[in-house]
Amino acid sequence: IGNKGGFHNRITKQIHLFPFTLNECEELFSLNALLNASAAQSLVYYEGLIQQINDIVMLATGYNTLVKDLKVANAALDALSVTLTAEQVNTFKGYHNSVAAFVNYDNAVTNATSQDDVNNALAAIEEKFDVVAYGAQTYANAAIAVVAAKTTIAGLTNLLPAHITSYNTFCDDTLPFDDYNTSFSDILANYTDVAGAKSDIDNILDVNNNDLDVITYAATQYNALLGVAAINNAAIDNLANLDSDAKDDFKEDVADAVDFT
Q1: How far is 42 from 248, CA to CA, in rounded Å?
Q2: What per-residue confidence (pLDDT) applies to 42?
Q3: 204 alpha-carbon distance from chain centroid
Q4: Which residue among 112, 206, 214, 260 is buried most deeply as judged by most CB within 10 Å?
Q5: Contact 146/168 with Cβ under 8 angstroms?
Q6: How far apart are alpha carbons 84 and 143 in whole angstroms?
Q7: How many whole angstroms separate alpha carbon 168 and alpha carbon 238?
Q8: What whole-number distance in Å separates Cα of residue 136 and Cα of residue 124?
């Protein structure tokens, strides 16, 4: 029809337009409600994703702080290398690294929902840094005390080199690092609070200091005893009526009395 000229004059099919039925209206309203509900659900979903990403960033930032503090803690241990051996310093660094292991951090922040939760978890972990540092410093103090005891013993002029060597060995044996490390490891494994852990460490050092005091006292007393022996030997030498054999016999008796063994 009218297939010549412009499109306005062409009819290919009639459009039959009728009002919607009540059933069709109901279907349309139901569809609109579904679309609106889906939009709301999508918004909640994406808001959840955004919160999840924010939480991940928060936890990552917390672990970054822990790693940074770990480096500071290990640097402080390096400062003890003047007193401690490299192996001993590395042992304490190993405790630091274990404390700051990601698995420990991950467990600590499992239920964290806020920055405060993360900060509290970090504080709890880094308390152990303090304990490790205290343990390292305590052993360094013990090593310094051993050196001081040896210096005192070396100044006892009546002692022979063999005597000094023996007393030095006693000093070294008061607190072997392996024994201390075993005790310290137990303290850290059973850690409940900083004060309690430090108290346990102090107890180890107190025992060591008491042993050193005993050794130093024994060396001082033996030095004094040798001084008395020397005086007595000089007195024996001045006994003009004794021959050399008799003097030697008495000197041997003195020597037996002050025998080091």
Answers
A1: 109
A2: 67
A3: 17
A4: 112
A5: no
A6: 8
A7: 36
A8: 20
CB atoms within 10 A of CB 249: 12
Q: Average pLDDT of 228-245?
A: 90
Is this prediction's pTM over 0.85?
no
The pLDDT score that the predictor gives to residue 52 is 79
pLDDT tens digits along 21-39: 888 877 877 777 666 766 6
User: Residue holding tokens 């343990």?
Assistant: 135
191's CB contacts (< 8 A; 6+ apart) are 128, 131, 197
User: DSSP characters for 72-101?
Assistant: HHHHHHHGGGGTS-HHHHHHHHHHHHHHT-
8 Å CB contact between 177 and 88: yes
CB atoms within 10 A of CB 28: 11
CA distances from 31 to 39, 45, 71, 132 (A): 12, 21, 60, 66
Whether residue 167 is predicted with pLDDT greater than 90 in this model: the reply is yes
Higher-confidence residue of 47 and 100: namely 100
Q: How confident is the model at residue 225 (pLDDT cuts 50, 70, 90)?
A: very high
Q: Grade residue 11 by pLDDT with cuts at 50, 70 and 90.
A: low
The two three-digit tokens of residue 107, written as one number: 């467990």
Distance CA 175, CA 208 (A): 6
For range 135-146, the mean pLDDT = 92
Q: How far apart are alpha carbons 36 and 56 in whole angstroms? A: 31
3-class DSSP state of 54:
helix
Token digits of residue 123: 């504080």
Tokens 């993360």 belong to which residue? 118
